[in-house]
Amino acid sequence: MSEPANAVHAVPDFNNQRADAFTDRMVDILNAGALSLMISIGHRTGLFDTLAVSGPSTSQGIADRAGLNERYVREWLGAMTVGSVIEHDPDNGTYHLPQEYAASLSRASPTDNIAVFAQYIPLLGTVEDDIVHCFQHGGGVPYERFGRFHEIMAEDSGQSVVPALEDHILPLIPGLRERLERGIRVLDAGCGRGKAINKLASLFPNSRFTGYDLAEEAITLARAEARESHNANVNFEVRDLTTFEHSAKPASFELITTFDAVHDQSNPHALLRGIRRALTEDGVYLAQDIKGSGHHHLDQNHPIGPLLYTLSCMHCMTVSLANGGEGLGAMWGREKALAYFREAGFSHIEVHELEHDFQNYWYVCRPSMTVT
């Protein structure tokens, strides 16, 4: 007698306990993914900010303070309650965000608001169909498909890079502050909405600052912030850096920065060679890029490794491939980054890590050992 087509065969050495544990983990992942969406909504609607400054309140009271629809707020509170983010007192129908949780979820915490990063999850979800198509047919998803990406990146930069500029980032380069105070020329390549370069322009009025980015919308907003900050010493340009190795004016800047901007370029080699071309012989190139090894097995212990690889697959890598680029991806790794910097003509490279920043490496690159 033949076996039924759907007969289940015993798998040798099948570990039921291991299977059950993984099933539990998958359920946790589904719940965490759902909470990421709701945390993003809580951030965007200002609900966490409202809860952070108010005591226990009903859903109607919370909705009124936030200026939102109560029915939606009530359902959102349900997700936050069962997700153990918000505490609920069923006796009086009130909800409360503990101050210890608010420290990671509200704009009152300008450098540790993890809710900012939760926004990446729904954003990436908007291009899932495009990414699946790329898995099947190759190619990439162009930058313009990513809607709010510059807005989220500006928030990210606004709490990770900008607050650290004075006390942590500039001191990585001895004598840089003094040079900036005297007056030098500075370029931020791939500046986005210009948060970092506008901050530097405000701090050092004697220096001249330039920001390049391909996205016209981002440059428009960078210029608006410069006007609001009365930064007359900064200029922003819409510029494609794919051919920067040829179009860069030689020796035109004493300091060039890139903040998380190299790995998603169509031609990162061309950008880096252009940076070297545009830098004076006594100049310095400061690059912030993702802390990774470029080897999957070595990145397993990275505290946000899954998030970074997902961002890489669904944004950084694919926007490069969409333009026929190399598709380095965010996790290209320290070893490859050093090789690219050396190939571009930087003979002296230092790699720094900042105590408060587990996500990035900070590369200080010079054409020679000369330090001014």
From TrEMBL:
InterPro entries: Methyltranfer_dom, SAM-binding_MTase, SAM-dependent_MTases_sf, WH-like_DNA-bd_sf, WH_DNA-bd_sf, WHD_Rv2258c. One of its GO terms (biological process) is methylation. Residues 181-291 form the Methyltransferase domain. CDD domains: AdoMet_MTases (cd02440). Residues 33-107 form the S-adenosylmethionine-dependent methyltransferase Rv2258c-like winged HTH domain. GO terms for molecular function: methyltransferase activity. Keywords: Methyltransferase, Transferase. Signal peptide: none annotated. This is Methyltransferase domain-containing protein. It comes from Aidingimonas halophila. The lineage of its organism: Bacteria, Pseudomonadati, Pseudomonadota, Gammaproteobacteria, Oceanospirillales.
